[in-house]
Amino acid sequence: MDRKFMAGVRATLPVCLGVIPVGMSFGLLAVQAGMTGGQSVLMSALVFAGAAQLMAVNLISRGAAVGTIILATFFINLRHIVMSSSVMTRLRDTPLWKRLLGAYVLCDETFAVFSLSEEQSIEFLFGANAAIYVTWMLSNVVGCALNQVLPELVTKSFAIAFYAAFLGMLLPSVRGRRRLVLLAALTAALNFLLQLVLPASWAVICSMILGAAAGTFFVEEGDLA
Amino acid sequence: MNYPMLLLILGMAAVTYLPRALPAVIIDRLRFGAKVEKFLRLIPYTAMAALIFPGILTVDAARPEIGLIGGLAAGVLAWRRRPVMVCVLAAIAVDVALYLLV
């Protein structure tokens, strides 16, 4: 196996551990919302976007229309355009079909791993993608099965997993960099205010864009090393 | 269940792939200045912050403390640079305890 590919797999394993509970939660909640195990696995394979899938399950159980869920999915995943732009600027010399394949599984986690690594090649991205894709699918299947085994008390508590995983990634990366701490706090506060007047998925998109724009004025180059 | 699930899945897949793929196609015509580059690099931080708060308060819409206290447990461990998996398992354990005890 290609050395760069394996480097991508290795660098992604820690965040894969964080994805497992989220994938299990999705499988678990999808079945509770009335999806079959097969449908939930198909959604994971084709959509591959944790936050959007969890949101979709939430909306399905509230009886939302298909169009509404698709629109909300579009907005919650629109942030990938910025992540993909950032990744693709480092992959200008890569053939188009490889870039398109690499873009398919690009997510918050692989973006973070890719951006923080020194080995920014398409092979590395493929390795990172493969690791997280396989983890996501397997944990989804396990989650579906767990519905039969775990008491409701435990399955209900899995809803926190998504947030705990994001805290586990965000906090260590801003610790000791007070301008990034300030930026994260500012963005969260802005999102709180925007959610008073906008639907949650819109507020998230607006605050991540406005927050990053504000950050360009006070975050220094050294904070992003 | 009569929900048009296949339509939903295909629709979600299409609108999700579009913003992922578009930069891959047009990147040859894209050149970013230093300011835009910095903006792009800040997005992961602001995206995670916005996805966490205030959504974490609605983990259990009827009981905001479930998200708050579970999140606090994960947050303290994360701040001490514990692995993501440890943060997640601790948060789940705390919430199980909260449901059991309170």
Which band does the percent of strand residues of chain A land in? Answer: under 5%
Number of strands of chain B: 0
Helix proportion of chain B: over 70%
Major sheet characteristics of chain A: none
Domain count of chain B: the total is 1
- Assign an overall shape of chain A: globular
Folded structure, characterized:
The complex is a heterodimer of chains A (225) and B (102). Chain A is mainly α and 225 residues long. Chain A contains twelve helices and no strands. Chain B has 102 residues and is mainly α. Chain B has one domain (5-101). Chain B is built from four helices and no strands. The longest helix of chain B is centred in the N-terminal third of the chain and has 22 residues, at 5-26. In chain B, 47% of the residues are buried. Chains A and B meet through helix 1, helix 2, helix 3, helix 4 and helix 5 of A and helix 1, helix 2, helix 3 and helix 4 of B.
Provide a brief overview of the structure.
The complex is a heterodimer of chains A (225) and B (102). By secondary structure, chain A is mainly α.
Topology summary:
The complex is a heterodimer of chains A (225) and B (102).
Chain A: H1 3-32, H2 37-46, H3 50-61, H4 66-77, H5 80-89, H6 96-104, H7 108-116, H8 122-149, H9 152-157, H10 161-174, H11 178-194, H12 200-218
Chain B: H1 5-26, H2 34-52, H3 64-79, H4 84-101
Helix pairs in contact in B: 3-4
What distinguishing features does this structure have?
heterodimer, A: 225 residues, mainly alpha, 2 domains, 0% strand, B: 102 residues, 4 helices
